[in-house]
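pasting for the record
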Amino acid sequence: MLVFLFVVAFFNTILAAEEHAYQQFIGCAFNNEGQVSRFWRYGYDGRDIMHVDLAKEAVVATSEPGQLLADERKSKEYINRKEARLVKVCSAVKTVFLKSNNSLSRAAKPAVYVSSGGEKDQQYLKCAVRGFYPNVIKVRWTQKGKPIYFGVSTTGILPHKDGTFQMISYLSLRNVSGHDVTCEIEHLSIDGKMRITYGEKSLFLSQITEHVLKAVAAFLLGFVLPVCITVLIICIRQKTSKPPEDEIQDTSDESEASLSLNLMNISQET
């Protein structure tokens, strides 16, 4: 992804009774790996007339009006001066770009939830769009593929504490039915358009369900499973420590024999 910075300087020159614009465009292009290119272009009344070719160390005219200016600026000293200026400007831009942690290249897909609300004559549909980045987004209502313009209001784009953005669009059902109404979203993170029709399972709801299932799975693995294993180990230990039945029987037999001898001794004494 390329990130451009344009520094534009306008110089207005009065010729006779008309006003003309002499323009200079200074630009630096970056991607995630660093600087890609830089340029210095000139324009007149909104048209390109010449540019500085740093690779060829030349001033190149791109139109007939720019040829005269190019001839006046073809010295190597002029080109070196422009290149030094570009190096300084682009270096400052690169510092800002790196400090931004390449946030311009990040794109977060929005979660969308369509619901209804209100009572009687004040019923409405609500399209909640959350978690998108950057903050440029288009949200509109359609019915059977046709856009709806009346009865639409929004909260505007609002920041969220996690660095993403959110907004809510409302559609009044006073003059339109809720049948086949769709919330349509266009965003940098979406290939094409995202369409959520009222009554269908929304992406936001599916994401919540996914989070709940993950939480339940984590609970089962982190708490229930260890408890079951502990109980099983205790049962096994108790079973292995229990004496055999024949040993218990022998012990009971010895007790009965001892009791019989005691009774015999007592009877003899009496």
